[in-house]
Amino acid sequence: MRAARAAGRIHLKRLSRITVGRKSNSIDLVTEADRESEAAVIEVIHRSFPTHAILAEESGASTHQSDHRWIIDPLDGTTNFAHGYPQFCVSIAYELRGRVQLGVVFDALKKECFFAQRGKGARLNGKPIRVSTTPSLGASLLCTGFPYDRRERRRYYLSFWEEFMTRVQGVRRTGAAALDLVYVATGRIDGFWEFGLKAWDVAAGALIVEEARGLVTNMDGTPLDMNGANILATNGRVHDEMIEVIAGARPEADRRHSEMLRQEQASA
Ligand code: IPD
Ligand code: CA
Ligand code: CA
Q: What's the 262 CA to ligand 2 centre distance in angstroms?
C-alpha cells in the first residue's frame, strides 16, 4: 500500500502536465507518469524485499528466479490519464509460488484504495466490500474494455458488445481494467469481460473480486490464465449466463472478423 500511495502521488502531480509518447502503435500510449510511478513502486518494494522478482508493464520481468513476485501496472488507464479523464489507478499484486496472495488497486484521484489478502476478504479504504446480489443478466450493469488490437479486430470485439447490450440494463467501457474489476468487487457493476488483458491488468483486481465473494474465470469458465487473460469477472450469480452469451456470440464474431479481413484484402 505504501508503494501504491507513492504511485498515486506521482499520478496526481503529473496529471496537470502530461507528456505523451507512443509505444508499439498509435493508440498504445505511455506517459512520464507510467515510467515514474513504476520506478517509485519498484523502489518501495525493493527497499523491503531486495531479492523478490518483479513483473512490471513498462520495464518487464526481472531475470532472476524467486518464489516471490510482484506484478505491477504502474498506471492502468493511461489513455484516460493522457486526456485528463478521471478514471485511472495503480495496480500491484504479490504472488507466492505462482499464486496471488495480496492485491491493491489505488485510485488516487477518488482516494479509493481497494485491497485484498487471500483468505482475509476485500476492503475499500479499510471497510469490507462484497459483490452485488443482482440475480440475472437482465438486471445487470456490465463493463468491458477493448484491447490495443481493437482497430484490426473491431468487428470481433463489437459482436460481444452487441450481444450484451440487447440483454442487460447497460454496458460501460471506462478504460481502466483494474478499476473495472474492483467495481465488480464493490457491486458497482455486476460483470466484466475483456479479451487479451495482461497479468499486470488483472492480478490484483482478480484477487479482490474473489475475496469480495465474486467469481473470476476465463470466458469459457475454466480457471483464469493471467497471461493472455480473456477474463470474466462477475458477482457469481450472472456468471453462467455471461459464459453462455459469449459462447453463443463467438461463431458470429469469427465470421464477421473473417469477412472484414476479406473485404480489406479485396480493397487493398
Ligand atoms: C489498458 C486499460 C484498458 C483496457 C486495455 C488495457 P493501460 O491498460 O486497462 O481499460 O481496455 O486492454 O491495456 O494500457 O492503460 O495500462
Ligand atoms: Ca493496464
Ligand atoms: Ca499501464
A: 31
Q: Does residue 172 have its Cβ closer than 6 Å to ligand 1?
A: no
- b/e burial code for range 68-100 (CB count within 10 A of at least 16 → b): ebbbbbbbbbbbbbbeeeebbbbbbbbbeeeeb
Domains, in order of start, for the chain: 2-128 (3.30.540.10), 137-267 (3.40.190.80)
The answer to whether the CB of 77 is under 6 A from ligand 1 is yes
Q: 10-residue block means of pLDDT along the chain (268 residues)?
A: 97 80 62 92 97 95 92 96 95 98 98 98 98 98 92 92 97 98 98 97 98 98 92 98 97 93 88
* Distance (Å) from CA 117 to ligand 1 centroid: 24
